[in-house]
Amino acid sequence: MTAITAPETNEKKSFLNVERILLLLAGVFLLVNFFALAFIRSGFGITDALQLVVWVVCAAAGQWWLERRLPRRDMLLFPIAMFLSGWGLLLINRLTQPFADRQTVWLVISVGVMMLVAGFPHPLRWLRNYRYILLMIGLVLLVGTIILGRNPSGFADAPQLWLGIGSVFFQPSEALKIILVAFLASYLAEQYPALRAEEMSGGRRFLNVSPRIYGPILLMWGMSVVILVWQRDLGTAILFFIVFLVLLYVASGSTFILASGAALILIAGVVAYKLFAVVELRVDIWLNPWPEADGRAFQIVQSLLAFAAGGIFGQGIGQGSPGYIPVTHSDFIFAAIAEEWGLLGIIVVITCIAVIVTRGLRIAISQRPQSFLSLLAAGLSMLIAVQSLMIMAGVLKVIPLTGVTLPFLSYGGSSLLISFIIIGLLLRLSASED
Amino acid sequence: MTTETILFLLRVGSGIILMLVLLALFIILWRDYRSAVTGVEANRRIYGQLIELKEIDGRYLETGTTYPLLSLTSLGRSPTNAIPIHDTFASGEHAMVALRNGHWWLEDRQSRNGTTLNEVMIHRPAIITDGDIIGVGNTRYRMELEQ
To answer: Could you write out the DSSP letters of every residue in A411-423?
Structure first.
């Protein structure tokens, strides 16, 4: 596992920096678990070995490239992203072996794109200057998905959120996340003086809220409604809206925005409950899944049983039975971790995601003089935070289930790619050039 | 060794690695936090400090309280001062120590009971240096400059 070698780049510093220690630990973890998996399957396939090798190469190449390009970057983001994505690869191999090869290819693409983002000159200025073009692309993608959308599984009933060319599918709403956060960050950075002046007016804030503030709220609210109505994509709709609300709150510092936004979500939730069967189903089985444990609530009940079966240290890889949960490899991958690595595994996953988010927010604080960079960092880390919280709490039946992926871990190329682009942008922001 | 033993050992191994990951993250974040804190404190303590003293039988005893010397340190009874003094002999805005043109100046701010420098009442701003004793009311401060 000493593939992580780049001695010529830093001869003065010690070989083991923070990044390499964590990557090494992640590599050993993957090796041990792949080994156990091979024992259970009584055979180590050539593709399994290949996946591990690909992961090691990705980690080594990424580390070497970042060391060269961004020597003053945040040292925690990349190794944690690699650790989680490697764990995800392992899980997909264990749960649905045929999908693992595809995910491996996506991992290579994702790390490659992240390296591009980290090495590309001035990606942040680019994001800011061409924001209307980016927004147009995003809206075209959204409309295109509404018209031409398909579902790779082929069921006529399933939400059609993918655009496909041949057998390659991509989920445009994932790309829309970054585009919209970048757009909103640059819009709010431009309106910063106005937003802050609004705050200064103090007591009369309720009376003279300008369209500068509620304009974007209503726009984003409308967009979330469109996604919900035409695409029946509850998770993405809520995710978008919460992230925008938080961004607006960060930019303006006004609690009135948080309160009114929360009220809008509640209103939208009640209306959606009455109108859409999918929302009604999710809320009903959240309130009480047990009467329908064999029917509509089968998935969530099996997920809860998986958590119970995991205990503190888990059943061990390949020794639990997360296969009972439908689509474990994407939405319910958190339950699979709970069953096979137990409470310990869950604590590690939550810690890792929390570290990514807090580092992101720290970068936002350190970039505070430049409001666009600061808002961008805050928005990107909130994307990961809200999305992870939604699916983790949903799988645990803390909140109604909303089908979003767990960043880095879930099966899904677009999700992995976008998560790595977010890491690339955060690394770029942490190096504070540009 | 049976397959079960090997699998059990591998399970233990993977659990230990997970704990090591947690430990490593904890140590890294803790060290990062410490270095951030010392960075902030280092920024504040470039100049030196003012050590609070009490005069008892002609000798100065340290009370154990020290204040960082800022480029502009205000002394007085009002809590907005950099060094708040709980002493009825001190005025609200009593005195200040400021760095101007490479010298430290002690200035009385028209206080009712005056400010002393080495037990001598001052009437106009005076240059002070390492080891000087500033007196406000019944409290004394020894100036210690960072070399």
So the answer is: S-HHHHHHHHHHH
**CA-to-CA distance for A134 and A289, rounded, in angstroms?**
42
Catalogue the long-range contacts made by B96-105 (C-beta closer than 8 Å, 24 or more residues apart): B96/B72, B97/B50, B97/B69, B97/B72, B97/B73, B97/B128, B97/B134, B97/B143, B98/B71, B98/B72, B98/B73, B99/B47, B99/B71, B99/B72, B103/B127, B104/B128, B104/B129, B104/B143, B104/B145
Sign of the torsion formed by the C-alpha atoms of A93, A313, A78 and A38 = negative
The answer for residues whose C-beta is within 8 angstroms of residue B31's C-beta and 6 or more apart is none
Query: Taking Cα atoms as reference points, which of A408, A416, A427, A422 lies closest to residue A83?
Result: A408
Q: Tokens representing A315?
A: 């059943």
- Distance between CA atoms of A377 and B112, rounded to whole angstroms? 53
pLDDT digits over A54-63, tens only? 999 999 999 9
Residue B31: count of CB within 10 angstroms of its CB: 11
A316 contacts on B by Cβ (under 8 Å): 7-8, 10-11, 14
Half-sphere exposure for B6 (CA within 13 Å, toward CB) = 12
Question: Would you kindly state where each structural domain of chain A is located, as residue ranges?
Answer: 122-263
Minimum distance, in Å, between the CA of residue B9 and any CA atom of chain A: 9
**DSSP of A160-184:** --BEEETTEEE-HHHHHHHHHHHHH
Q: What distance in Å separates the CA atoms of residue B49 and residue B43, rounded to the nearest whole number?
A: 13
Within 8 A of A347 by CB-CB distance, chain B residues are 22
Q: Which two tokens stand for residue B145?
A: 């400059």
What whole-number distance in Å separates Cα of residue A84 and Cα of residue A348?
A: 10
The one-letter amino acid code at A333 reads: I
> CB under 8 Å to B68, separation ≥6 — which residues?
B44, B45, B47, B49
* A interface with B, Cβ–Cβ below 8 Å: 18, 21-22, 25-26, 28-29, 32-33, 35-36, 39-40, 75-76, 83, 313-314, 316-317, 319, 341, 344-345, 347-348, 351-352, 355
Total Cβ atoms within 10 A of residue A213: 21
Residue A245 CA to residue A247 CA, distance in Å, equals 5
For A77, nearest residue in chain B (alpha carbons): B25
Beta bridge partners of B61: B54
Cα distances from A12 to residues A7, A64, B31, in angstroms, run 10, 16, 21
Give the Cα separation of A384 and A381 in Å (integer).
Answer: 5
A220 with A244: CB under 8 angstroms? yes
Q: Are residues A26 and B7, on separate chains, in Cβ contact within 8 Å? A: no
pLDDT of residue A55: 94
Task: Quick: pLDDT tens for B80-105.
Answer: 888 888 888 888 889 999 888 888 99
B61 touches chain A (CB under 8 A): no
pTM of the model: 0.79
A171, A414 Cβ separation under 8 angstroms = yes
Say if the ipTM goes beyond 0.90. no
Angstrom distance (rounded) from CA B7 to CA A157 = 42
